[in-house]
Write a structure and sequence with these properties.
160 residues, mainly alpha, elongated
């Protein structure tokens, strides 16, 4: 019984780790996309002052967005950690009372706790992704105005 519980907990924590890694990888790829896009935009910038003022405006508007997204992420970590601790508590209770019989009830409690944690984690990370995308979409919509610098002209190869 304890071995099965150990294996189940290992699988639960591996799934949680995989979900966190996937979220971080999505963030890394999004960051790479935007950095690459900005390289193209800045490649032929006409007016440094115009870009500087635009950058300052975007930074002022982005700071609250970043803070909000960090708060949402922290809330998600809290929810998933609590769900994981609930599974661990159930597993410890089952392991400590292994000699008292009612293996079906204990197994059921373990499965219920595991699936509840999995539901909580999937839901929390889904909401995290959704809220983060909504926040960024709103930010981009609100930031795209006439004050944004014009797109850079395509570069022509030099003939040196």
């Amino acid at each position: 019984m304890v071995q099965g519980t150990n294996e189940t907990l290992t699988e639960v924590f591996e799934t949680m780790s995989d979900a966190a890694r996937t979220s971080l990888e999505a963030g890394r790829r999004t960051q790479e996309f935007w950095f690459d896009a900005m390289k193209d935009v800045f490649a032929g910038a006409q007016s440094f002052d115009r870009w500087t003022s635009f950058g300052e405006k975007v930074s002022r508007e982005a700071a609250p967005l970043v803070a909000k997204n960090i708060e949402i992420f922290a809330d998600t970590v809290d929810k998933t950690s609590r769900a994981g601790m609930d599974v661990l508590k159930t597993a410890c209770d089952v392991a400590l009372n292994a000699n008292e019989g009612d293996f079906a009830g204990k197994s059921r409690a373990m499965w219920d706790a595991s699936f509840s944690a999995m539901r909580t984690n999937v839901s929390a990370f889904s909401k995290l992704g959704q809220k983060t995308m909504e926040n960024w979409a709103s930010f981009c919509k609100n930031s795209s105005s006439d004050s944004a610098p014009a797109k850079a002209a395509p570069r022509t190869p030099s003939t040196k």
